[in-house]
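Run log // design_07
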C-alpha cells in the first residue's frame, strides 16, 4: 500500500462509467485501489493513469463476475486482504425489453451479476470488515428500485433486492463499526444503455462525474440512502415512514375483514 494511504477500496465494474469515476475520485482522496472488471486492457490503462496522477497504489483483478470461478478469485481477495476496507459494489447490467420480450438467458445473466455476485461480494466484505471493526460497503442500486413501472421489471427487481439488502445490512453491521450506503442513481450517462440497446432522453441523463460526486458527498454526510437527483430528502424520509407504518399490519393471525373470509372460532 502507498505510504499515506486511506485504505484500499475494491471497485467492481471499474473499467468504465460509474466504476471508473469512483476509482478516480477515490484515488484523488488518497485511497489505494483494487479494480475489478472483465477488460484487462482498460483496467491496466486506468491503473497506470491513476498511479501516475495521484501516487496511490492501484492493483487490477480482471474477472467476469457472472462466472463462478472468476468471482471466487475476487471473493478470496476481498476476504483475505486485510488492507481492503471499502467495497464499491458497482458492476451491473441491463437488458432491453420487457420480461416477455427479453431472452431468458440474458435475464439470468443479469440476475447473476446484479443479485448473486453483488450479494456474495457484500457478504464477503461484511464478514471481513466486521471482524476488524471497520469498513464501508457502497452498493450501487437504482431509482428503479422505487419505480418498477418505469423499466424492465427484472432489472428493477434486481435493484430493489440490492436496496433491501443494504438497509438490512446497515442494521446488522452498524453496531460492529461497518458502514453501508445504497446509492440510487437515476439515468446516468454510461455505456450500460448502449449495451442494452435502450434509448434514454437527454434531459434526464446525469453526467457520471456529477453522480459520483453527489454519492460521495452523501457518504461524507453519513447517509444510508443517497439519491443524487432528489431535490428534497424529506420526500424519501416520508416514503420510508409510510412504509414502516405498514409494518404492524402486514402480518396477523387472521385475514383482514375486507376480504370477507369466514373464520371458524377456535374452541
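design_07 sequence
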Amino acid at each position: 500500500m502507498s505510504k499515506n494511504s486511506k485504505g484500499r477500496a475494491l471497485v467492481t465494474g471499474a473499467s468504465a462509467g460509474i466504476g471508473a469515476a469512483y476509482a478516480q475520485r477515490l484515488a484523488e482522496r488518497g485511497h489505494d485501489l483494487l479494480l475489478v472488471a472483465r477488460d484487462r486492457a482498460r483496467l491496466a490503462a486506468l491503473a497506470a493513469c491513476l498511479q501516475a496522477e495521484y501516487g496511490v497504489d492501484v492493483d487490477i483483478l480482471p474477472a467476469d463476475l457472472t462466472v463462478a470461478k472468476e468471482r471466487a478469485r475476487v471473493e478470496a481477495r476481498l476476504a483475505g486482504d486485510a488492507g481492503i476496507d471499502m467495497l464499491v459494489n458497482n458492476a451491473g447490467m441491463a437488458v432491453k425489453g420487457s420480461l416477455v420480450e427479453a431472452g431468458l438467458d440474458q435475464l439470468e445473466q443479469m440476475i447473476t451479476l446484479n443479485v448473486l455476485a453483488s450479494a456474495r461480494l457484500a457478504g464477503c466484505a461484511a464478514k471481513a470488515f466486521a471482524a476488524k471493526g471497520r469498513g464501508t460497503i457502497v452498493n450501487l442500486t437504482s431509482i428503479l428500485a422505487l419505480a418498477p413501472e418505469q423499466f424492465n421489471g427484472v432489472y428493477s427487481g434486481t435493484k430493489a433486492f440490492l436496496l433491501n439488502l443494504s438497509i438490512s445490512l446497515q442494521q446488522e453491521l452498524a453496531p460492529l463499526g461497518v458502514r453501508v450506503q445504497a446509492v440510487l442513481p437515476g439515468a446516468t450517462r454510461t455505456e450500460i444503455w448502449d449495451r442494452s440497446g435502450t434509448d434514454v432522453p437527454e434531459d434526464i441523463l446525469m453526467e457520471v462525474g456529477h453522480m459520483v460526486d453527489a454519492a460521495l458527498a452523501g457518504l461524507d454526510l453519513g447517509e444510508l440512502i443517497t439519491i443524487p437527483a432528489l431535490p428534497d430528502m424529506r420526500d424519501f424520509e416520508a416514503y420510508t415512514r409510510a412504509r414502516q407504518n405498514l409494518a404492524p399490519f402486514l402480518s396477523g393471525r387472521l385475514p383482514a375483514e375486507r376480504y370477507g373470509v369466514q373464520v371458524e372460532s377456535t374452541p
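The mean pLDDT is 93.
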